[in-house]
Design goal:
This protein is mainly alpha-helical. It has one domain (about 5-150). It is built from 7 helices and 2 strands. The protein has helices at about 5-20, 40-45, 50-65, 65-70, 85-95, 100-115, 120-125; strands at about 140-145, 145-150. A hairpin with a 2-residue loop joins strand 1 and strand 2. Helix 1 (about 5-20) packs across helix 3, helix 1 packs across helix 5 and helix 2 crosses helix 6.
Length: about 150
């Protein structure tokens, strides 16, 4: 699922609102600026989904990106807000009275988590793979009725 340039800016702004860049040292789990490939991960994960998935996730991104217009009546999209304003807005959306808004915002937060855990440097700092045998991938069963597994990491 290829994104337009404006969608790329929105996606970066949304995901950096959930995981603001930090120092990236061992004491901080925040990603360094540019460390996480949010757009690449988003396109990879959602490109593998069917049409309903692609349209749904794009709708989630557009809802969150346009939220300053309809929540604060500000003539800007999320990429026009500073870091603190984005963080506060995303927190408000996660507590919005409408469940659809909360769910679609949470979906974007999950996408952010997936992008962060795709990066080996972030996985190492977080010790996400601690206790797992070296090189052993995480495997998930696709369906209970199908004995096959799919490697995810």
């Amino acid at each position: 699922m290829k994104l337009t340039n404006i969608e790329r800016r929105w996606l970066e702004a949304i995901m950096e609102g959930f995981a603001p860049p930090g120092s990236g040292d061992a004491d901080h789990l925040a990603p360094e600026p540019g460390e996480a490939d949010y757009v690449g991960t988003f396109e990879l994960l959602n490109g593998a989904g069917g049409p309903k998935v692609r349209y749904g996730i794009r709708a989630a991104m557009m809802l969150v990106a346009s939220s300053p217009l309809w929540t604060q009546l500000r003539p800007t999209f999320i990429d026009g807000l500073n870091e603190g304003e984005r963080i506060a807005l995303l927190e408000d959306l996660l507590e919005h009275p409408l469940q659809i808004v909360r769910e679609l915002t949470l979906l974007m937060k999950v996408q952010t988590s997936m992008a962060l855990l795709r990066e080996p440097t972030i996985r190492a700092r977080s010790q996400y793979d601690a206790g797992r045998a070296e090189g052993t991938p995480v495997r998930l069963r696709l369906k209970k009725s199908v004995p096959s597994v799919q490697e995810v990491a």
